[in-house]
Write a structure and sequence with these properties.
Structural class: alpha+beta
Strand content: 25-35%
Order of helices and strands: EEEHEH
Distance between the termini: 48 Å
Bound molecules: zinc ion
Strand order of the largest sheet: 3-1-2-4
Shape: globular
Amino acid sequence: MSASCSRPGCQRNPTATLTYEYSSSTATIGVLATPHPMQYDLCDLHTDRLSVPNGWALIDERVTAPVVDLRDRFAS
Ligand SMILES: [Zn+2]
């Protein structure tokens, strides 16, 4: 985990880790992890602005789909 965001000139606290997987052309945003050569810690601002090269997929593992239980909706 870095002390600050990886973007040049940005001193914000990192809130996520970006990992590039070149073999599958996938960029993954995950929770902060231990340092790795292919990982970059980013603050929330730069995570939101993140874009990936053409042909790459961006996966945000921080987002978990809300579980909606329809039974509650129709219970009464
Ligand atoms: Zn930043």
